[in-house]
Amino acid sequence: MKAEITGSIARDDGLERLLALEHHDPHSILGAHRDGNHLVVRAFRPDATSINLIVPNDAPRPMRMRDPAGLFEVAVDGRVSLFPYQLEIHYGGESITTYDPYSFLPTLGDLDLHLWGEQKDDRAYDKLGAHLREMSGIRGVSFAVWAPNARGVSVVGDFNRWDGRVHMMRTLGSSGVWELFIPGVGVGANYKYEIRTRDGNLLLKSDPFAQRMEVPPATASVVTESKYQFHDADWLAERARREWIKSPVSIYEVHFGSWRRVPEEGNRPLSYREMAPMLGDYVSRMGFTHVQLMPVMEHPFSGSWGYQVSGYFAPTSRYGTPDDLRYLIDEMHRRGIGVILDWVPAHFPKDEFSLGRFDGTALFEHADPRQGDHPEWGTYIFNYGRAEVRNFLTASALYWLTEFHADGLRVDAVASMIYLDYARREGEWIPNAFGGRENLDAISFLKKLNQDVYRLNPGIMMVAEESTAWTGVSRPVFMGGLGFGFKWDMGWMHDTLEYFTLNPIYRRYHHRDLTFGLLYAWSENFVLPLSHDEVVHGKRAMLAKMPGDRLQQFANQRALFAYMWARSGKKMIFMGQEIGQWREWDHDTSIDWNLIDYPDHRELQVLLRDLNRIYRDEPALWEADTDPAGFRWLEADDADSNMIAFMRVAPSTGRRVICVGNFSPVLRSRYRVGVPNRGFYREILNTDASAYGGTNIGNMGGVEADSIPWHGFAHSIAVEMPPLAVIWFSVP
User: Fold this and answer.
1) What is the predicted pLDDT for the residue at 269?
2) How far is CA 116 from CA 110, 175, 336, 347, 389, in A?
3) What are phi and psi of 478, to 5 degrees?
4) SS3 letters for 337-395?
5) Rounded Cα distance, 524 and 339, in Å
6) Residue 10 has what pLDDT?
7) Which listed residue (73, 330, 412, 720) is catalytic?
8) Pairing mode, if any, of strands 408-411 and 461-464?
9) DSSP, residue by residue, 163-222
10) CA distances from 702 to 110, 270, 719 (A)
11) Where are the beta strands (DSSP E) in 565-642?
């Protein structure tokens, strides 16, 4: 074949926009195009000295520079249909040979774009972002990004010397999605999007759908592909059959970077793979049912604890690769432990490389600061009324549940999402269409999110951190609720800590703090949380909050845990509380594991282990957490003695456990409690046992019921109640 060179190309508007890197469809100029009885191949490679067109079984064809900006062209006579070719590009003394990115069809179809725009793509993360693909037999990476208001978008990375002139993207219809397939790029390539805005600014942005990021403080996205094979099919099948509201749930909350560290290596945190067996064995030995990981999604600032997310599809690279995190979750499942991930759809940071003002406009957030700025955290608030934003967040939630086999999401700061006036004064917020303070778009989003994730992932848990009296947070959408499975009982947490931090002499005046929560305990499916938020910012560590001398502090802490484990509601504590950490949590340092060398700390840990063991084995303590039939007060009014007594019931079997608590520093001898029937009431747990660091005051294994009416029953027991202690009795 003979190669013919076409004549000069006039600098029309299209070419001017191409050379300015602002063309919406560079493929319409670059690549191969039919021109009469031949094909014309054009390439734009600034700084190249020459380019040859390489066609299989033919001699190289030199391309003529048609514009000094770097536009090259060659006509291939006799060719009227597309054919495979490569470009041999020379830069001074260096040359590269590559397939032409502008010779490939789009990697996204009309249906993909329609589903994206309608919030109907459950797997948008498979289309947008960077993905290894094979196009026409050629391996490479397809890039796709949503930037509807950009004048031009380029992929830049270490594969093109971060030169935005080399790999300009095209828009696909009116979707606002820009796309390009780049042959030859592979796993491990670093990249970003270079975005030209309508006002002439140049932005360098990480990929919102990136599935891996560089280790902070670096901010480039990284091409990745999972090779991990899970081995948890049995776990997932069992999970799908589980009804968690009628199952034991005991959660151990963990901040990944500070659970354990390696002091011999600069005090570095453990990697995902190092952590997996250590955390799995520990949590299994302690008897917890779940681990809850504070956000492991990529975030730029470690001091945010992960709650200012920049990578909604990327595990933080601080601790390893995405497959390393998959391995950790798989190892937890192998040990019968569920994994709940903290997830933050309420707000995102303003870092220039991230989502904020992504294409030069308020894309993921509201433009009006009264809706789009979070005054408390200095972050942006998502625009939940925009279908693409809702699809982005829904896809993120589904990604962690589907691709990482997470067993649930704890959704952070729900109250800040559903109230337009959250943390705002009069005049700083915009009412909804009906003049109210409810964020109707956020409410609609949360309802559909919960419906979608439960439909697609049977047996998972969606847990809301919601701090107000909003009705029906954990009720199904068809019943008018938000559709979560559980809600943190923040009221219980505040009241309980208020009570236990008081000197016992004043507790009689605050007895309501123990009893009030039972007035609303069944209005939601509650988790009782003693979270990380309660042991930072001057609030003191949990043990340090307790009043009295050292012995009394430990006794109070033991009593708090035993009362909590007996009360209606699922359980959650933050790491370190189980060993009696004295100092506040610090995200840069490890838990003080050396404390378990001291008997009282070790004995507190043993108590937590036994609480979990008894709890998991006793259906009365969890079967009817969300049903008033599972709880009965026996003594709720003895404020002067700082005493309470209640009974837990498993309605399906009639199994019952009685919990008696003495929260005064005084021995209550022969304290009488009404019981449902005669027989021997076996003492199954006593926080004052010497094994837990107590004084060993108790009931010699149990108490025989007397035929003395009490508390509305025909029988009662007279118990020895040690100071600052809780005792559980099994009902015969």
Assistant:
1) 96
2) 10, 8, 36, 21, 10
3) -70, -15
4) CEEEEEECCCCECCCCCCCCCCCCCCCCECCCHHHHEECCCCEECECCCCHHHHHHHHH
5) 22
6) 55
7) 412
8) parallel
9) -TTT-B-EE-TTS-EEEEEEET--TT-EEEEEEE-TTS-EEEE--TT-S-BPSTT---EE
10) 72, 46, 9
11) 570-574, 631-635
Q: Is-catalytic flag, 465? A: yes
Query: Are 534 and 580 contacting, i.e. CB atoms less than 8 angstroms apart?
Result: no
User: pLDDT of 126-174, one tens digit each?
Assistant: 999 999 999 999 999 999 999 999 999 999 999 999 999 999 999 999 9
Half-sphere exposure in the Cβ direction for 95 (13 Å, CA):
10
Q: How many CB atoms lie within 10 A of CB 415?
A: 17
Q: How many Å apart are CA 401 and CA 306, to the nearest integer?
A: 18
Residue with tokens 């589904």: 398
* Contact predicate 251/244, CB 8 Å: no
| Residue 672, both tokens | 């009488």
Per the annotation, the verdict on 627 as an active-site residue is no
Q: What is the pTM of this model?
A: 0.95
**Neighbouring residues of 256: CB distance < 8 A, sequence distance ≥ 6:** 269, 270, 275, 293, 294, 296, 319
Percentage of the chain exceeding pLDDT 90: 93
The two three-digit tokens of residue 93, written as one number: 């003394």
- Residue 383 has which token pair? 């625009």
User: How far separated are the first and last CA of the chain, in Å rounded?
Assistant: 97
Which candidate, 50, 33, 135, places its Cα nearest to that of 89? 50
**Rounded Cα–Cα distance for residues 728 and 731 (Å):** 10
Q: Please give the Cα distance from 291 to 279 (Å, whole number).
A: 9
Count of other CB atoms within 10 angstroms of residue 259:
21
Q: Give pLDDT tens digits for 299-328.
A: 999 999 999 999 999 999 999 999 999 999
Q: Catalytic residue, from 330, 465, 603, 683: name it.
A: 465
My answer on whether omega of the bond before 217 falls inside 30° of 0, hence cis, is yes
pLDDT tier at 3, thresholds 50, 70, 90: very low
